[in-house]
Amino acid sequence: MERRRFLGLAATGLTGAVGLTATACGSGSDSGDGVTLKMVAADYGDPGGDNSTQTYWDEVSRAFTKKHPNITVDVSVYSWNDVDKKVADMVKRGEAPDIAQIGAYANYADQDKLYPASDLLSIPVQADFLPSLAEAGEVIRVQYGMPFASSTRLLFYNKTLFSEAGLDPEAPPESWKELKRAAAALKDAGVKIPYGLPLGPEEAPAETMMWMLSAGGGYTDTVGTYTIDSAENVRAFTWLRDELVGEGLTNPGPGSTDRQDLFDAFCRGEVGMLNGHPTLMQQADRHDVKYGTAVLPGDGGPAKATMGVADWMMGFKQNGHREQIGAFLDFAYSEKNHYAFADRYDMLPVTTAARERMRRDKGHKELWSFLDELATAEFYPAGKVSWAHVSAEIKKSIGKAVEKGGSPASVLGGLQRKAEAEETAAQ
Questions:
Q1: Alpha-carbon distance 240 to 263, whole Å?
Q2: Is 125 helix (H, G, I), strand (E, B) or coil?
Q3: Helix (H) or strand (E) holding 54
Q4: Residue 282: helix, strand or coil by DSSP?
Q5: How far apart are CA 387 and CA 105, in angstroms?
Q6: CB count, 10 Å around CB of 15?
């Protein structure tokens, strides 16, 4: 596979970003005393890659302040294991940041702590969001969550290990049955982890959803009602327990294994297959891993849908910096700046302009399959106020469903009851 070159922000046009347009309701003025915005953001860099998102945001904030001297932006970046809790603790203490870029927004919107997107962004910027992502940021038809990064998931597999196991490196598994057969062949060939299953806190809600979708299930039905303990979902986790984990074809202790641990192992040549997102390509390329990607295997054939993930930007009301927040977000979402982020971290753009630019860029050809999946991807029920609590519970308990002697029906049933209770409490 051709090794990609990852360019710095200056090379992708950050420092030459387009001028700021006036934000909604006439905001964006730099007049008056200086203001420092506090922002908390998640880290998209991979360990060992020297590409922490702190560097990206520091460059964005410096470029912004150069154009708007009365506004500075102090950005703190945390790992995905910590960032949501950091913001929750700040809000609980009455010290909400001005801007947060994290995994969930609906509970803060429900508490009337957030500005609607229309109060912050200029009309052209808000209208440029991909429609499906903009809708996923709504609570009762009002957009509070502004998508910042998106990705879809595909099956990654190590072509070298496939060849050594006597498997066709150009024919990845398309069904659960084929997945098990490939995993068994990899195990027989001495591969340490035939299939990587991260059900630890970092990735549990995502890996869970992917397996639900591969069985034709999901977290909710078409009208948004929780269906966590559906027959399809129980079947998926029963198969996982009996046919993969129970047969010794996964990493030991999936419930305590995080995504990055398996990504690292994949790049050391210790994992044959795992579900991954575009950022894994960077890490694998850097370690010269020969890999392929494919649609997720499903029950009886390729999965009919994959999971899409959107991470959310939001503006908190507490400090009253609506105009300054809007000015900075308009700047951050400009085509050049947003594309610079997507380019650096191999994420999928959330705006139409940046998406079209990526589709024209042959240097990102490896991402086009992820972009294609985005059109039909299914997302977390992030617009539900209850989702943050449900997601936290999934992180704690879903691993028990695949343990020896574990009961998928019991674990999923408990999650369903938790979801229904949280949904009732939120009404």
A1: 20
A2: helix
A3: helix 53-67
A4: helix
A5: 10
A6: 15
- On the question of pLDDT at 423 being above 70, the answer is yes
Contact 81, 200 (CB under 8 A): no
Locate tokens 């054939």: which residue? 301
CB 46 within 8 A of CB 289: no
CB 283 within 8 A of CB 76: no
Is residue 268 exposed (0-12), middle (13-18) or buried (19+ Cβ within 10 Å)?
A: exposed
Which amino acid makes up residue 87? Answer: V
Distances (CA, A) of 299 to 27, 110, 241, 276, 303: 52, 38, 15, 19, 7
Phi-psi map region of 289: left, alpha, beta (phi>0 left; psi -120 to 50 alpha): beta
At residue 28, the pLDDT reads: 40
pLDDT digits (tens, 9 = 90+) for 315-363: 999 999 999 999 999 999 999 999 999 988 888 999 999 999 998 999 8
Q: Is 166 exposed, middle or buried (0-12, 13-18, 19+ CB in 10 A)?
A: exposed
Query: Does residue 166 sit in helix, strand or coil?
Result: coil
Average pLDDT over residues 88-117: 95
SS3 195: strand
Give long-range contacts, CB 8 A cutoff, 24+ apart: 126-134.
126/24, 128/333, 128/351, 128/352, 128/353, 129/350, 129/351, 129/352, 130/350, 130/351, 130/352, 130/355, 130/374, 132/375, 132/379, 133/310, 133/350
Q: pLDDT tens digits, residue range 210-242?
A: 999 999 999 999 888 999 999 999 999 999 999
Tell me, yes or no, if the pTM score tops 0.90.
no
> Cβ(176)–Cβ(243) under 8 Å?
yes
Q: Are 134 and 116 in contact (CB under 8 A)?
A: no
Which segments within 320-397 are labelled E, that is strand?
A: 378-379
Structure token pair of residue 406: 């574990």
CB 157 within 8 A of CB 357: no
What distance in Å separates the CA atoms of residue 83 and residue 54, rounded to the nearest whole number? 13
Tokens of 213: 């979708």
386 near 423, Cβ under 8 Å? yes
- Closest by CA to 400, choosing from 256, 194, 259, is 256
378-379 and 307-315 beta bridge pairing? parallel
- Which amino acid is it at 270? E
Q: 69 phi and psi, to 5 degrees?
A: -60, -25
